[in-house]
Amino acid sequence: MRNEVPVSAAFQGVSPGSRILAAPCCGTPETLLEELGRYASRTDGLQLTTGLTFGSFPHQRAVRAGRLRYRTWHPSGAGCDMIRAGLAEYLPLRASDVRAAIKGNVDVLLLRISPPDRDGWCSTGPTASFTRAAVETARLVIAEIDPDLPRTSGDARVHVSEIGRLVTTEDPTPYYPGPSRTDPGIAVIAEHVAGLIPEGATVQLGLGAVTEAVGELLGRRGDPFGIRILGMITEQMIPLVEASSGTAVAVELMGGPKLMAWADRNTRIEMTSSDRVHDPVFLSRIGTFVSVNSAASVDLTGQVVSDAIGGRVVSGIGGSADFFEGAHLSGAGLRIVALTSTTARGLPAIVPEHPAGTQVTIPRHSVDVVVTEHGVAWLRGRTVGERREALLAIAGGGDR
């Protein structure tokens, strides 16, 4: 291929002060990020921006050394640690705002792609959330070719003519490890949530042990109620997608080798950008749209915290605000927050009030129902006092 270069030459000529954006999640370009770290050690003022990334975070040495400015709207792992240490910056963006934030602000885009087919088409495989928009705005696109990346269609398609430089990678596809928590109460929560989902609903499930348990339960149950999935697809959802009468609309595929092999050339999946999937107007046209997301904590008025507690950044806003707004506008929509009554550290997750300095992710007027292993608390249409009683009833006694 004419535009293929050695990895060591991937950033050749990228000028000081350039703004660099990397693809997210299971499409994280590990090889290019590692080379970026090396290049930043001899080039001043480079800025890297990312969403949620997986893998070994190979550029963190350059960030910690002050050679690479790093910003992220969905921190995790080492990213959270560096934000807390003042070495990186947090962008509190909802998913629907990402396109506007990157438009005209990307000098170099880093992608992980499948090899081009005979017509020159490549695929970004498991990621489509903002890559199409980024390709259209970036001045230079650099991509690493991963032969194991699933070939998906829709907004995951990129033509080789849109890519300025290609490199080969031997780094394995970054996989989403899945939640590690196995609290027995999680299965009970999944049962409660599944009982709230009406026949024929289109369902969005966020990341986390609780919400992914809902997907697993729905998958085991099959599709007796015509339920469809929108948003992210994990391995647990494969049976549900296969049983569904329609396609699953996905912005990200989150899993490992099993999911990637299943997704390869699978016409049951429609990879679609955040421009559509996170657009509340688009979501409002779905007759029954149910959004299920987890949280770090909920106070007794129904205020939800997901990304930062007491000023300590723990995650990103993601698409929860967009999905909840879309569910609100949907004809028979439902906004569900599902969480265990205690955190992984054994602290209450339903609290009288959030700590000072905590930023609310979802306001109290945007939540219909909260679910824990102790039951279901309906908040829609209830006074502050009634909400308090309903939430205390599912708090497990920690706040009484």
Structural commentary:
The chain is of the alpha/beta class. The longest helix is centred in the middle third of the chain and has 13 residues, at 209-221. 53% of the residues are buried. The radius of gyration is 21 Å and the shape is globular. Helices cover 25% and strands 22% of the residues. An eight-stranded mixed beta sheet has the order 13-12-11-10-14-19-21-22, with helices on both faces. A seven-stranded parallel beta sheet has the order 4-3-2-1-5-7-9, sandwiched between helices. Strands 16-15-20 form a three-stranded mixed beta sheet, with no helix packed on it. It has 13 helices and 22 strands. Helix 6 packs across helix 7. The mean pLDDT is 93. It has two domains: 7-168, 3-Layer(aba) Sandwich (Glutaconate Coenzyme A-transferase), CATH 3.40.1080; 185-393, Acetyl-CoA hydrolase/transferase C-terminal domain (Glutaconate Coenzyme A-transferase, 3-Layer(aba) Sandwich).
